């Protein structure tokens, strides 16, 4: 196989965005749309999973717990599992409600991230080849201020119990957590625009990093074949 053949096989990085907000006109929905638009403008692949709009069922069924990894996943999860495993970056966008992510986000973790994993394998990162090495990025919002969340001890508890834990058990790589605080109905448009500018900057940064990584991998593959 020559270098030209390898060049033809290059695939653009892929992003999966998981939105967890019931209002299609919400700040979080605007953030998800801005991220997706920027990634598309950069020529990379992106898929948005608006969990509420899709009617995603967050309830983990009894037969999904400790399921044999050789068995097929529930039919309603097939598309999500396919997108999750093909993504280079997994981006969550959600509000913090009562100090925690919305229940639908936790349900997505339970059912999609947890598909084919059981209590015996969850402690061994090496078994999670389908997710290991992927980047995890988060965009969150809250009506309260971050200093208030920190004062109540919720900020560090939330990060440790959710994103840090997910990275550790699934072998994910940290791609950053951008939090927008004091976001309430009627927030000033200038504030929103500043937030969206930050979102687009994050999108450009991770897209550039992925592209460089894939190009380097392709170059190494070509050198091995010449």
What's this model, at a glance?
This protein is α/β, with parallel strands linked by helices and 226 residues long. Helix content is 46%, strand content 15%.
Give a verbal description of the structure.
- The protein has a five-stranded parallel sheet with strand order 2-1-3-4-5, sandwiched between helices.
- The protein has helices spanning 3-8, 27-41, 51-54, 78-86, 103-113, 146-151, 154-170, 189-225; strands at 14-19, 45-50, 89-95, 135-141, 173-180.
- Helices cover 46% and strands 15% of the residues.
- The protein is of the alpha/beta class and 226 residues long.
- The radius of gyration is 19 Å and the shape is globular.
- The protein has eight helices and five strands.
Distance between the termini: 8 Å
Number of strands: 5
Rounded Rg: 19 Å
Helical fraction equals 40-55%
Order of strands across the biggest sheet?
A: 2-1-3-4-5
Total number of helical segments? 8
Order of helices and strands: HEHEHHEHEHHEH
Q: Any low-confidence stretches, pLDDT <50, length ≥5? A: 1-8
Largest sheet: 5 strands, parallel
> What proportion of the residues form beta strands (DSSP E)?
15-25%
Mean pLDDT: 88
Protein structure class: alpha/beta
Molecular shape: globular
Detail the topology: elements first, then pairings.
Layout: H1 3-8, E1 14-19, H2 27-41, E2 45-50, H3 51-54, H4 78-86, E3 89-95, H5 103-113, E4 135-141, H6 146-151, H7 154-170, E5 173-180, H8 189-225
Parallel strand pairs: 1-2, 1-3, 3-4, 4-5
Helix pairs in contact: 2-8
């Amino acid at each position: 196989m020559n270098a030209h053949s390898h060049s033809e096989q290059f695939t653009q990085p892929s992003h999966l965005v998981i939105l967890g907000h019931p209002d299609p006109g919400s700040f979080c929905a605007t953030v998800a749309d801005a991220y997706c638009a920027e990634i598309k403008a950069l020529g990379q692949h992106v898929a948005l999973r608006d969990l509420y709009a899709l009617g995603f069922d967050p309830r983990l069924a009894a037969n999904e717990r400790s399921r044999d990894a050789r068995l097929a996943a529930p039919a309603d999860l097939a598309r999500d599992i396919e997108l999750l495993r093909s993504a280079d970056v997994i981006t969550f966008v959600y509000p913090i409600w009562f100090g925690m992510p919305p229940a639908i986000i936790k349900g997505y973790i339970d059912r999609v991230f947890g598909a084919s994993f059981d209590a015996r394998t969850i402690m061994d990162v090496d078994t999670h080849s389908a997710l290991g090495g992927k980047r995890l990025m988060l965009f969150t919002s809250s009506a309260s201020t971050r200093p208030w969340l920190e004062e109540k001890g919720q900020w560090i508890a939330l990060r440790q119990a959710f994103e840090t834990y997910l990275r550790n058990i699934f072998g994910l790589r940290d791609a950053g957590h951008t939090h927008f605080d004091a976001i309430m109905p009627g927030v000033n448009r200038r504030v929103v625009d500043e937030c969206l500018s930050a979102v687009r900057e994050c999108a450009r940064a991770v897209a550039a990093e992925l592209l460089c990584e894939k190009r380097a991998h392709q170059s190494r593959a070509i050198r091995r074949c010449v």
